[in-house]
Amino acid sequence: MKKIIVIPGDGIGKEITGSAVAVLKKIDEKFKIGLEFDYRDAGGASYDKYGEPLTAETLDACKAADAILFGAVGGPKWDNIEVSKRPEKALFGLRKGLGLYGNLRPVKIYDALIDGSPLKPEIVRGADILIVRELVGGIYFGERCESETVDGVERAWDTEIYSVPEIERIVKLAFESARKRRKKVTSVDKANVLASSRLWRRVVNETAKDYPDVTLNSMYVDNCAAQLAINPTQFDVIVTSNMFGDILSDEFAAIGGSLGLLPSASLGEGTTGFYEQIAGSAPDIAGKGVANPIGEILSAAMLLRYSLNEEKAAQTIEAAIDKTLADGYRTGDIYKDGLKKCSTAEITQAIVDRI
Ligand code: NAD
User: Fold this and answer.
1) What torsion, rounded to 10 degrees, do the Cα atoms 322, 324, 328, 333 define?
2) Integer Cα distance of 130 and 182 in angstroms
3) N or C: which end of the chain has fewer CB within 10 A?
């Protein structure tokens, strides 16, 4: 049996994880993987029950599982509680507790949704990119100074530090991921200015020797930001540091259209992978049955691909989503006149029917 911890969380989390589990159950019927689901609380839902956004028991259950399917946490109900008890703390606790150092965000432009992209169709058609972002190092975690005065002038500083093992493990993750895709890695840095980027580039070039079947190029981050808007189809896998990845992944998300379409995976030292759609808990539409579940269902496909090594099952889900969109099914966030406007449950059923 493969144990999956399902953490619906708050807001639309219950609705979208419900959809992803329905799809996984259909996949299990077809591929006989032997999936077992164990439901746990986190975020505001956990705070309301146990007074903590993430209990030690839930974290232990997650560590022992094969994978975690996570919805979203947070909402206005918990906006004014003590900072250490805020729903978002559950996410940090899980990332830290599971040692999740790599964040994978695929962005694919569906032909059926091409008008939803802010880029021209002829530029964006066929774009299908995976960004691999380092998640626990670099300038967000380096030593910093909020304020000091030197020669009568106030200043502040942050430090970007990367060690060889930290770079190696994320770069390996990118090369391994590329082997499951179109076998091309673009490493993004600022090696013309930063020492940490020069080390990054050296380690990337060394690591590449173990992956002769994968093509590698390096690109400066400023050029990458421009290339994404000019020629996004040149990219397959992009690997980069924590801060560059943070900025570029939002640029990527924007070219994809709706927030509700985008999945993510966080992978780490242990064997447990963590999968969630990239948006928040959408309190404005929670409980109305209208949330777009596609980002979460695609997260379930990533779970099959990266944690259970079930590539065929993952592709089956992705193909079912392609077909559902091509057949005109749309939730409100991506709806256009003349198409079939659906609830969360209706579009989920349409996807399940196409598996
Ligand atoms: P949000 O991402 O929840 O929503 C932004 C907008 O996108 C809203 O209008 C929402 O209705 C829409 N949207 C999001 N997902 C959608 C979907 N699947 N289908 C259709 N529409 C969708 O961002 P927000 O409103 O700034 O944050 C709401 C709460 O979520 C906050 O408490 C925030 O802290 C939390 N949050 C959680 C996570 C997480 O759990 N990983 C991430 C970001 C924000």
Assistant:
1) -80
2) 10
3) N
Number of Cβ within a 10 Å radius of residue 172: 15
* Cα–Cα distance, 120 to 320 (Å, whole number): 26
pLDDT of residue 258: 76
Q: Count Cβ atoms below 10 Å from residue 208 Cβ, excluding itself.
A: 17
Q: What is the pLDDT of residues 17-48, one digit of tens each?
A: 999 999 999 999 999 999 999 999 999 999 99
Catalytic: which of 48, 79, 210, 222?
222
For residue 280 and ligand 1, the question of a CB distance below 6 A is answered with yes
Distances (CA, A) of 157 to 38, 139, 194, 195, 198: 44, 10, 15, 16, 21
The C-alpha atoms of residue 266 and residue 104 are separated, in whole angstroms, by 6
* Residue whose C-alpha is closest to residue 253's, from 127, 140, 90: 127
pLDDT digits (tens, 9 = 90+) for 289-298: 999 999 999 9
Write down the pLDDT at residue 270.
72
Which of 135, 117, 134 shows the shortest CA–CA distance to 126? 117
Catalytic residue check, 49: no
Q: What is the C-alpha to C-alpha distance for residues 355 and 347, in angstroms, rounded to an integer?
A: 13
Tens digits of residue pLDDT in 149-183: 999 999 999 999 999 999 999 999 999 999 989 99
Separation of CA 114 and ligand 1 centre (Å): 22
Catalytic residue, chosen from 66, 128, 246, 322, is 246
Ligand 1 and 137: CB distance under 6 A: no
